[in-house]
């Protein structure tokens, strides 16, 4: 940050995003809104995960960036709840559908909310969802009503549950491999900064607090790296967030490839690039292949393995 | 501005600048806090390298009526050293986050200085005499054989060159899991508070092995954390009252008499969001970076990214005044988020209850007069700054045709930020810290 006073320049295309307070309800600028949102989303992720400081990162900054990501995620979720969400049972014979059926369990059990598909499968009929009119006009997220209702009324696949259990036990194994210093931390914290002669009479309040923290942390199975919670809450958040997006994109992609499901308006073709873009750009740091927004994004198991590796290994 | 002639604007003149001249800034020299003591005679700075430098004002020279005394280095000492947290494998920075002076009770001066984890009470004392005339030691310092000492010689104090010694008298450690952002001395002058991201602790100045937790906003599940404490301060007159600000733009006033743990505020100050200004960055720019009571204690001032707000303690639902510091940055928030400038923590300070001052980019700083509603932008730079020449007001051109002498937003240097400023408690003397230099400005005395 302390250069010789050189001013950083922003990218050309992003110049267009500046200077405008774009709200989601602006009709024509909806695309630039989503573009800006996506840019901010990516910047936020980069900030959380590319930073390897020698000192503890600022908690305030981490919290603010997390809130930003959460807000964007909420928006995406709300927009996503209008998309025709379907469940595996309704698309039996298509090869991509098979892929999807295989892929979905691999992802869904990673989601910290096992009922996440249920979130997407909104139980309220489309008509009663509040939708900014612009969403319906520009990026027609919804397709034919019949498909909508099919998707909406199906419960989440029961296959999720057993898969989750087997995976979470695998997760536990990984946890065991990672050091879990939360309990040790509380006991050792008084000793960590060792120059004061006040150790013997260390306030018991701090110690007791630290120990109870460690118990609550360890009781959460879905937390892959409990040791990092005190330092960066973002680690747990990434697991939550990125997988949601992958999940979204997965569903979208299948929708995109399904002729019966795309509407006559061709809305899905507009819809896919938005979500695929987000996913592509999010994954860009992890993949060496150049990705272009126009490529239809096909998820296969090797990519899944790669992503799993990255997430669990970080 | 309030001036000697009543209603005249203050005319600020450059007085001094301290620090290295070169453009290459050594990381350790970055100034991280500036604070006058209660009389204004001493001015302390803390830096990223953990050092404290104290300047002392020269006694006013009767013959030199044109300017007030200059500030010269009085004492320099290493307050904090870097530490290593072996458990988390992270360094604990030695950067001095805050310095607060205690009121003077005897010949010595006392101040509290803190880094992210540890607060220290330093005693600064002068020594200008030493005892001489002992006949108990040889020339080389060895004690003489007592049987050879035949006379009784009483040593006499003789003057010596002034020596200023700083010694740590108390070390308040191991009470903060998170990074300390504020310390504030109570008006009882016996206790003080220290605040980190999630907790506020109350200490007694004499007791280092115990502190009481008075605010705790840590959620049971850290994943639910969405708000942190950003600053805290005791009320200048009520020893039971303090305020703390948050990253969501709220200020809570707490009364320690209400309960031991002040998790429920007595007052909550929050301005509803302006829907026309809503953006992705609304929350981040609402995060309060500093909160300061006016000297009277009736008002408090908060600084968020783009503005300074004055609150009347009797009115919680909105500030009584809002001053825009650099509104032209509102359209640049995405870039400022990308380069992290949006997280810069600007401080603010009062002159009594009438004028407030805060910093900005490009080494600009701003002052707002609450009475005349006038504001001014000045620049802290070595160029064009001669002693006793009045500083030229600066202007940033937000858009459109740039007038002569105006600076366009795009040519602002965002690496030159003024985060820390201080106002002398009694006179119109201000200290303004650029990255690694300390500027002192005075009003033009007629």
Automatic annotation (TrEMBL), chain A:
Q: Please name the PROSITE patterns in this protein's record.
A: SERTA
Which stretches are tagged as biased composition: Low complexity? 183-192
> Residue limits of the SERTA domain?
33-80
> Which GO CC annotations does the UniProt entry carry?
nucleus
Record field: compositional bias (Basic and acidic residues): 8-18, 210-221
According to the UniProt entry, the coiled-coil residues are none
Query: Where are the stretches annotated Disordered?
Result: 1-29, 183-225
Enumerate the InterPro entries for this protein: E2F-SERTA_domain_protein (IPR052262), SERTA_dom (IPR009263)
PANTHER family the record matches: CELL DIVISION CYCLE ASSOCIATED PROTEIN 4/SERTA DOMAIN-CONTAINING PROTEIN 2, SERTA DOMAIN-CONTAINING PROTEIN 2
Name of this chain's protein: SRTD2 protein
Organism of origin is Nycticryphes semicollaris
Please name the taxonomic classification of the source.
Answer: Eukaryota, Metazoa, Chordata, Craniata, Vertebrata
Q: Which gene encodes it?
A: Sertad2_0
UniProtKB/TrEMBL annotation, chain B:
Q: Which InterPro entries match?
A: PP2A_PR55 (IPR000009), PP2A_PR55_CS (IPR018067), WD40/YVTN_repeat-like_dom_sf (IPR015943), WD40_repeat_dom_sf (IPR036322), WD40_rpt (IPR001680)
One GO cellular component term noted in the UniProt record for this chain:
protein phosphatase type 2A complex
Q: Work out whether the entry's keyword set contains Lipid biosynthesis.
A: no
What are the alphabetically sorted keywords of the record?
Repeat, WD repeat
Note the PROSITE patterns from the entry. Answer: PR55_1 (PS01024), PR55_2 (PS01025)
Q: Does the keyword Repeat apply?
A: yes
For this UniProt entry, which segments traverse the membrane? none
- List the Gene3D superfamilies: YVTN repeat-like/Quinoprotein amine dehydrogenase
Please name the GO terms that the record assigns under molecular function: protein phosphatase regulator activity
Q: Of which family is this protein a member? A: Belongs to the phosphatase 2A regulatory subunit B family.
What's the name of the protein? Answer: Serine/threonine-protein phosphatase 2A 55 kDa regulatory subunit B
Q: What is the lineage of its organism?
A: Eukaryota, Metazoa, Chordata, Craniata, Vertebrata
Give the gene symbol: Ppp2r2a
